[in-house]
Amino acid sequence: MTSISATAVACPNIAFIKYWGDIDPSLHIPANGSISMNLANLITRTIVNYDPSLLQDQFRLNGESTTDEALERVSILLNRVRQLANISTFARVESNNNFPTSVGIASSASGFAALSLASSKAAGLELDEKELSRLARTGSGSACRSIPGGFVEWHAGDEDADSYAYSIASPSHWNLADCITIVSQEEKPISSSVGHALAETSILQAARIADAPHRLNLCRAAILACDFDQLAEVVELDSNLMHAVMFTSTPPLLYWQPATVAIMHAVQSWRKEGLPVCYTIDAGPNVHVLCLGEQVEMIVERIQQLPGVTQVLTAHPGGPAMLEERA
Ligand code: DP6
What is the pLDDT, as a whole number, of residue 187? Predict the structure, then answer.
């Protein structure tokens, strides 16, 4: 082993075209491709240290030990890295988010992206972006989109080798902003992993998947042309389709709270007034309000007037997962 310790940073991402449902849940091979934007300044920093004195892997998140389930997910990814690097040493993993955990921002995406980069580097591997994206995907599907920078597309593929994400435009291509509107700090009642497994129980999932290539084309074209109107239409449609699948699953998943719906109404009426703004919602009640970077302050001011809003975080397009040199 050339190196036993490495530190990496990665940001979460917000999906414009959503990943919901797997064709292979163990490897997170998705039922459809997806497109996202990395969220700058929201950062997970992860240090991985392979230590021959350890009898098992250790994982601390934000300075605290985690559940056995979280440790197991980390260990499964570390096992893949150990197999690739042909080593057997256990590792101490410390991960810190500079944003509040469990506010519906996918910290598993930034977490597994940073873990993949730090753990492979510390094990002496030099994985390229595609290999890192595939590795991160095995930890959490959406994590594969936090390896490349800017605006990112996840090619669904149908097996491990061809399911990975790549950048379709750099962070500076388009000054968009995500106003992450928090209405509830409660832990998600149903995790995404459980939700993915339920997607197939909705009769709407097949229609959602069949039309995904069309929505991906519209979304990619809107990003490349910096066309906000086209982006808004396809982003809201795609979010609504995913939630339609969610609340027609068995059992049904209804993540929205009254405040969620109030924000959806407000955003649609602002767009009717002519403001470039749209919403997208993940597996939780909080709302990502997308707007142009230069209008972010005015939009945040409006959002803060709405009922039930407890906090608004803002993020611009973020860069790729990166190694940090040791001080
Ligand atoms: C609604 O990537 O969190 O945010 O692979 O089980 O960890 P696991 O799921 P995850 O699912 C993300 C679901 C989503 C949509 C998206 O980000 O594309």
Answer: 64
Residues across the chain: 327
Contacts 24+ apart (CB under 8 A), 75-84: 76/138, 76/139, 77/112, 77/115, 77/116, 77/119, 77/135, 77/138, 77/139, 78/48, 78/119, 80/135, 80/138, 81/116, 81/119, 81/120, 81/123, 81/125, 81/135, 82/123, 84/120, 84/123, 84/125
| 193 pocket-lining for ligand 1 (C-beta < 6 Å) | yes
Averaged over successive runs of 10 residues, the pLDDT of the chain (327 residues) comes to: 83 98 97 98 96 96 89 97 97 93 74 98 97 98 98 98 98 98 78 92 98 98 98 98 98 96 98 98 95 98 96 96 84
What do you get for the CA distance between the two ends of the chain, in Å?
A: 21
153 CA distance to ligand 1 middle (Å)? 14
> Which helix H or strand E contains 280, and what residues bound it?
strand 277-280
CATH code of the domain occupying 176-315: 3.30.70.890
Task: Pick the closest to residue 33 from 218, 178, 277, 288 (CA basis).
Answer: 218
pTM over cut 0.85: yes
Q: Which residue's alpha carbon is nearest to atom 8 within ligand 1?
A: 140
Residue nearest to atom 4 of ligand 1 (CA): 282
3-state helix, strand, coil in the chain (%, to 5): 40, 25, 35
Ligand 1 site, residue 112, Cβ cutoff 6 A: no
Residues of the chain with CATH 3.30.70.890: 176-315
CATH number of the domain at 4-171, out of 3.40.630.40, 3.40.50.1000, 3.40.50.620, 3.30.230.10?
3.30.230.10
